[in-house]
Amino acid sequence: MIGSDTPADGLAVFVKKDCPTCRLIQPVIRDLSQRAGSMIVFAQDDVSAVEGIAVIDDTSLEQSFRQGIEAVPTMIRFANGREVERTFGWNRDEWQRVTGLADLGRGLPQMQPGCGSRSREPGVFEHLVARYGDPGLASRKINIGEWDDPIEAGFERGWSDGLPLVPPTDERILRMLGGTIRNPDEIVGRVPPNLAPCTVEKVAINAVMAGCKPEYLPVVLGALEAALEPIATMHGLLCTTCSGSPILVVNGPIARAIGMNSGINALGQGNRANATIGRALQLIIRNVGGGRPGELSRSTLGGPHKYTFCFAEDESDAEWTPLSVARGLTRGTNAVTLFQGDGIQAFIDQRSRSAPELARSLAMSLLAVGHPKLCEFTNAMLVLSPEHYGIFRDAGWDRVRIEAELHKAMLRPGKDLIQGAQGVGEGISPGRAEELVNKFWPEGLLIVRAGGKAGLFSAICGGWTGGRFRDQSQPVTREIRL
């Protein structure tokens, strides 16, 4: 592409002052200014980049962007308004060939590599695309008045979850899209409750607003794909009068690569990836699907987990079977599991020191999920802290053994659980009085390892009541695609 400042016939040279190779070839550029006819020199950082000749200020990087400069120095030869040849860095043979001057650069090294163009520095290129190019974004653009505050506009237009949003400028959206190889116009699926089609671009916009970094985008996309699986029943989870909401657990190398927290305070605040990935999914449901509290979102109480609830599993123990592997994926696969659940119920046991003791103790707390007399009514997630897990590990108990012992410890006579028993109206059907009843379906208890070595405290996340419809609502695990 030829710009208004580039010659129709002649040479254009792009340099920057802080490039050692550009400084090396200053004599060559001065020589060319005398012998090459028409030549223009563009400086990306300082017009004094080449002493003794006139240099055009390209600190805006407009010309560098329009000419697709990736390294400096770059020399381009134009003929009849079109680029015909280009070379970058310093290679004496190449510069002599392009200019037709056989003695050019004598006395200089044969070659020396150049430096990266300022127009390709991280975060810069997206600004240049937005300013001088075609961003190629299909989503409707909302213009904010010159004197308006974009953060306040987000509140006023109903895009916010109650916290400030990062304004989704073209530059930020383009940078976010750089986090995935998927096409911006790819439709990820239809988001409830309005079943609105959601593209990768719209996911990126909400990820920007949530505060995500580009490298988080594949996880957000994977979480959305999990949420849109019919068995995830996202529409029901959204419209429920209970407090259920997506809880995201991330497995695989990507969790470490993007800095997710699986250790101290893993379920709490303070980690950008954990906080913003979960928030991005919630904003997509709100802004694309139309799931706003008080409208189709009808939770009686809600909970802070409806802002975000996302963490990574601790996979530091090679003997432990990660959640994603237990759910059918191969070890080392990047994955996200969506569990339909509530906030945490703290579990405290600082005295049980044997595996059987701890299993019975955990079972007592798990029985309280939803209601002590409700069985096979919700699922549950048990988040085992390192010190509680250590008791099981030292006893040689793996995931399968821990799950089996917990289910065994939660078996109870139906006569104690039926409606009206123990003077409490809530309970299971009177027809089950003669059964031994388990608290959860066999597949209804998910165990995850997380937390820091800070105490004998674990956590239980009760499941959504839709889990009682065993064949219609289940947790979902999806592989994360880059």
Question: Main attributes?
Answer:
482 residues, alpha+beta, Glutaredoxin, 2 domains, 7-stranded mixed beta sheet, 5-stranded mixed beta sheet, 16 helices
Question: Describe it for me?
Answer:
The protein is α+β, with helices and mostly antiparallel strands and 482 residues long. The protein has two domains: 10-121, Glutaredoxin; 152-479, no CATH class. Helices cover 28% and strands 19% of the residues. The strands form six sheets. Strands 12, 13, 14, 15, 18, 19 and 20 form a seven-stranded mixed sheet that branches. It has a five-stranded mixed sheet with strand order 3-2-1-5-6, with helices on one face. Strands 4-9 form a two-stranded antiparallel ribbon. Strand 5 (74-79) and strand 6 (82-88) form a beta hairpin. Helix 7 (170-177) packs across helix 8 and helix 14 (355-366) crosses helix 16. The radius of gyration is 30 Å and the shape is elongated.
